[in-house]
Write a structure and sequence with these properties.
The chain is an alpha/beta fold. About 45% of the residues lie in helices and about 20% in strands.
Length: about 290
């Protein structure tokens, strides 16, 4: 007899896969760690094989788990979309979203276009700034949702996905290890900036900032002109730049986390709809 995949099991499975950790997944789903473990065991019984490899240090998806993850995200997205439409077909209102320029440029347009097509009566307004400034604006009531970057070991908000960080440069870039490294970065308050400067400090390599800007387009232009190197999340690297990771002087960097923050106590239907939709779409299209 064919057994059906259960929504609750899939939701816990996706949470464990996103966090690579049963304890964090339990916190996100509002269950105990033992309950999440039992759900994963039930899911493995249904599919007939293991979906995670577990060790004391880490939790990783198996080959079957990676395949199931694609379908699980689709099933959850359709489930949530159906419930949202049935429960709030006429949701109306303004959703003020804050996002760094790179996310607003590379991640949000297709997501918000799809959301507006499904919820035409909800108006979206996007504001761009660094994560720190955006979270401050949200705390002051100026924003409803904020898409923010956090270090991989200091996650806040609702985790959407993890992103690897890469050193990037122009295709003809040649590094001079005897000279201070010229950097093109987002301004202070950017998690990626803090990570790269900490890495250079550990290497004891001198550096200076040639460009500091909130604009992804300006960063790309400056790097292509030879003004310096930059560090970017994998999903926002422009096609014209090359990755330097692993070459002499450019060590591998820890990744970051993209999280969505919703204003506490603001659970209006149209804002919750937008929050759930953005989280679902970001988790589906992982790097």
């Amino acid at each position: 007899m064919q057994r059906d995949l259960e929504i609750d099991l899939l939701r816990s499975f996706v949470a464990v896969a996103a966090h690579s950790n049963f304890t964090r997944a339990a916190q996100v789903t509002g269950r105990t760690q033992s309950a999440v473990s039992l759900q994963i065991k039930r899911l493995e019984d249904i599919v007939g094989c293991r979906v995670f490899e577990r060790s004391r240090q880490s939790v990783t998806t198996t080959r079957t788990g990676e395949s199931l993850l694609v379908y699980a995200q689709r099933i959850l997205a359709v489930n949530d979309e159906a419930l949202s439409y049935i429960q709030t077909p006429d949701a109306v209102g303004l959703v003020r979203i804050g996002a760094p320029d790179d996310y607003a440029t590379c991640l949000l347009p297709s997501i918000l276009k799809k959301f507006s097509r499904e919820h035409p009566l909800i108006q979206i307004e996007v504001h761009c700034d660094n994560s720190v400034e955006l979270l401050d604006a949200q705390a002051n009531g100026a924003l409803d949702l904020v898409l923010a970057t956090h270090p991989h070991d200091d996650v806040a908000g609702q985790l959407a996905r993890r992103e690897p960080l890469h050193w990037v440069a122009a295709p003809d870039y040649i590094d001079d290890p005897t000279a201070p490294l010229s950097l093109v970065l987002f301004p202070q308050g950017c998690a990626c900036r803090d990570i790269v400067l900490a890495s250079l400090k550990q290497m004891d390599r001198p550096w200076h900032i040639s460009y500091s800007t909130r604009s992804l387009a300006l960063i790309e232009s400056a790097v292509l002109s030879g003004a310096g190197v930059s560090v970017m999340e994998a999903s926002v690297i422009p096609a014209g730049l090359v990755i330097l990771d692993g070459t002499n002087g450019f060590p591998l960097l820890p990744g970051v986390v993209i999280s969505l923050h919703q204003s506490p106590g603001n659970s209006a239907a149209h804002i919750s709809l937008a929050s759930d939709f953005i989280l679902s779409e970001l988790s589906r299209h992982r790097i």
